[in-house]
Design brief:
With about 260 residues, the protein is mainly alpha-helical. It contains 14 helices and 4 strands. It has helices at about 1-10, 15-25, 30-40, 50-60, 70-85, 105-110, 115-125, 140-155, 160-165, 170-175, 200-210, 215-220, 225-230, 235-245; strands at about 100-105, 140, 155, 195-200. The strands form 2 sheets. The protein has a two-stranded antiparallel ribbon with strand order 1-2. It has a two-stranded antiparallel sheet with strand order 3-4. Helix 3 runs parallel beside helix 5 (about 70-85), helix 6 packs across helix 7 and helix 9 crosses helix 10 (about 170-175). The longest helix has 15 residues, at about 30-40. The radius of gyration is 29 Å and the shape is rod-shaped. The chain starts with a helix and ends in an 18-residue tail after the last helix.
């Protein structure tokens, strides 16, 4: 790789073999640091692993069953696992035992999300910086990616929230814009990229809106939330804010599903 060649020139026109020997003499940490530096610069795809390591990997594979090579194979196996976005479906010399890195592409496949959404979530969480690299060359910490995407999977879309509350989607958007329901993904640059809400946040929201069923004598005096906004010249967000601040004298449900009436 170019980094090795330029470094060899800098240390006195060493041949690649001599330079490699010099690096090896400095121990495993120096070997990994050198390889990691090249990987950081080139960002190979997982499928390019064979070409990236070239003759070294082929040499290790040829000697995989020889006892004397166990330590060397273990060294480079660990380096590959720690520095490349490879998982159980990829084999360096030995089957991958632990995924340390994801690419946006591999995370998209594992979690069943579109690549653009995985990339946006990673940006929001500080797992990567804005980049024009292809999705397979954007590396992410595997554990943090798992934590973030697992949470994102336990979310509701705007239409799902509207259905559960029995209201139209525009009213849901008003609640999101008022932060009555926090989004999982925060909008960027004033644009709505994804509007999803954690199930736990939504359940807590519904609990705060909980109200007893109206009795037959109460029904005639109640109006729907939509009618209340017309009478009071306010929005549904205003009504919900009154509910949350316990400022409504009467709050009842007309049915077991949908929103309340006041």
């Amino acid at each position: 790789h170019g980094l090795v060649e330029s470094t060899a020139t800098a240390v006195g026109e060493l041949s690649l073999v001599d330079y490699g020997f010099e690096i090896a003499c400095q121990g495993p940490e120096r070997i990994e640091a050198m390889i990691a530096e090249v990987i950081t610069r080139e960002r190979p795809l997982a499928i390019e692993m064979q070409g990236f390591f070239g003759k070294l990997r082929r040499w290790l594979l040829r000697n995989e069953d020889k006892d004397g090579f166990a330590g060397v194979i273990e060294l480079f196996q660990g380096i590959a696992e720690r520095n490349l976005p490879i998982g159980s479906e990829e084999t360096f010399v030995l089957p991958t035992r632990h995924r340390h890195l994801h690419s946006v592409r591999s995370a998209s496949i594992e979690f069943g999300m579109v690549e653009d959404r995985v990339y946006q979530l990673a940006l929001d969480a500080g797992l990567t910086e804005p980049t024009d690299l292809s999705r397979g060359r954007i590396y992410l910490d595997a554990q943090r990616t798992h934590d973030i995407l697992s949470v994102a999977l336990t979310t509701l879309t705007t239409p799902e929230i509207a259905s559960e509350l029995g209201i139209n989607i525009d009213r849901v958007r008003q609640m999101l814009d008022a932060n009555l329901l926090p989004r999982v993904e925060v909008a960027q640059d004033g644009t709505r990229i994804f509007s999803r809400v954690r199930r736990s946040d939504f359940d807590a929201f519904k609990k705060r809106l909980d109200a007893p069923m109206a009795t037959p004598t109460e029904i005639e005096a109640l109006v729907t939330i939509g009618r209340a906004t017309q009478i009071l010249f306010c929005t549904m967000v205003d009504i919900i804010d009154l509910v949350f601040n316990v400022q409504l004298a009467v709050l009842r449900r007309l049915t077991e599903d949908g929103l309340f009436s006041v």
